[in-house]
Amino acid sequence: MKLASLSRSLLRSATVLAFALTATACATNPGDSGASDAAYQVSDPLEIPNRFVFAANEAADVLVIRPAAEVYVGIVPDPVRDAIHNFIDNLMAPLYIANNLLQGNVEGATNATGRFMTNTILGVGGLADVATQAGIPHAPEDFGQTLAVWGVGDGPYLVLPLLGPSNLRDTAGYAVDTVGDPVRIWAYGTDHKGAYMTRGIVSAIDRRSEVLKEVDDLRRNSLDFYATVRSLYQQQRRAAINNNKAPATPEFPDFSTQQPKP
């Protein structure tokens, strides 16, 4: 049970780190973490304990997750890694479909269902992302987003052990998604817990492997990595809640090398 939770935690941490790659491409204002922008301020009354947990998570990434991702990249060919990534993402499709329906987003549910059926049938069980090639958009939805659509506020910012950046609403949403995960339900109902744990661990390593250099650059160029990640998480969640239709991200965080806006 603990190992299963750990695998899901590593996946969440790697996902947040992966967002850093997208966010850094839009950074234009060195010297400001982004927290000064009123529109993106984050309620962080637990900053001191949050920073302590953040440091522990950083140690876990440096000592375990990142080295594992480097080995993964070194020994697994690109086409195989792509197939693994596609297959794991396809397993999450039922959750995307359910959350779209709970949000009343019929178009999103239709797209998610179309992707799942297309990739499962034509993509050999999800190993190939045929749906993207067919023009069906990919828009993951989680229960934290669903709660936001229902009007639930963020709540205080939290850094959870291994889970990484979150807030009170998204922590509750994560718990619901974990309990409702069809793969987890199947694994625990049929005594295939090993398969569930393997999916979580491989997912974390796969996602972390996609941003090895970018996260290193983010760490090196951020004057306050904690504040940078906090700001990025806030912006990522707002964009996700708005189905990526939110205004362009403001100028953030502090990087010594500037990159053009996309």
Automatic annotation (TrEMBL):
A GO BP term, please?
intermembrane phospholipid transfer
Name the InterPro entries for this protein. Answer: MlaA
Q: Does the keyword Signal apply?
A: yes
Q: Which keywords label this protein? A: Lipoprotein, Signal
Kindly indicate where the leader peptide sits in this chain.
1-27
The segments labelled Disordered in the record are 243-262
The GO cellular component terms are: membrane
Residue ranges crossing the lipid bilayer per the database entry: none
Q: Which family does it belong to?
A: Belongs to the MlaA family.
Protein name, per record: VacJ family lipoprotein
